[in-house]
Amino acid sequence: MMAKDRGLTFKGVVRAFFPTAETVLPQHRAVIGEVLGCPLIDQYASSEGAPFILECEKGRLHIHPLTGIFEVVDENLQPAQEGEILVTSFSTRGTPLIRYRIGDRIKLAREDERCACGSHFPLVDYIDGRSSDFIWSPENGKVNLGNISNCTKDAPGIICFQIVQHEENAVEVKLVKGREFTQQDRESFLWALEARLGKAMVIRVDYVNEIAREKSGKFRIVKNLLKNSQVSV
C-alpha cells in the first residue's frame, strides 16, 4: 500500500531530507520521498568526529575527509576494501581519537573509480552499519542487516520488527503488526527468514505493541548478542 493510500501527507515544503543515526533502506527512501515530496540525501556521521559520508547529486556516497581520516580494515586489522572503520578525528578536543574503533562497517569503491558529479573525494559503495548487525547462521554464516531487512518485502502488514540472537541455533523476533496484517504476511515473512537463516534455525515470534530503541535513540533491526567465541568465522 502506498503512503498516500494510508493518508500519510505533509503540507509543508521540504527541499531535502537528511537522515541520521540509522541505516537507510530502499523502502524508507520511497516512503519519505513520497510523503515529503523531496529527495532523501543519505549521510553518515558520528559523535566521535568521523568524516562525513554524503550522497551526491548522482546518488553516490563520498567520504568528505575534512574533519578526520577513515581507515577500512579486515578482522585482522589489515587494510581492506570492505570492513570495519577506524577513525582518526581532527576535531575532538581533550581526548585525541587515533585509529578509534567505532564498530561501523563500509565498503569502499575501487580507487580508480570516478563519480559523474565531478568530486574527487573517495567513493563508498555502501554503508553496512554496525559490525554486530548480522545474524550468525550455522548453515549460511553471517547474514547481514540489508539481507534481513528485505524479509518484509511481501508482508505489507508488518510495521516493524527486531531480530535478536542469543544462541547459535535460535533467534527471537519482536514483531509489530499493522491493521492489515494477515496470516499470509506471517508465512511470507517466516519463509523469507528461513531462506536466509537456514532450516535448522529456530525462529520464535513475539507480537508486541512497540519495540524499544537503544539508549542512543537508534532503532536496531538486528541485535547479535552472541559472544565472539560462539561465532566461528
Model description:
There is one protein chain. By secondary structure, the protein is α+β, with helices and mostly antiparallel strands. It has 3 domains: 4-36, no CATH class; 43-130, no CATH class; 134-230, ANL, C-terminal domain (GMP Synthetase, Chain A, domain 3). It is built from 3 helices and 13 strands. The protein has a 7-stranded antiparallel β-sheet with strand order 1-2-3-7-6-5-4, with no helix packed on it. A hairpin with a 2-residue loop joins strand 10 and strand 11. The longest helix is centred in the C-terminal third of the chain and has 15 residues, at 183-197. It is globular and about 50 Å long. The protein starts with 25 loop residues before the first helix and ends in a 9-residue tail after the last strand.
Q: Per CATH, what is the topology of the largest domain?
A: GMP Synthetase, Chain A, domain 3
Helix content: 10-25%
Q: In CATH, what is the class of the largest domain?
A: Alpha Beta
Poorly predicted regions are none
Helix/strand-derived class?
alpha+beta
Report the span from N to C terminus.
40 Å
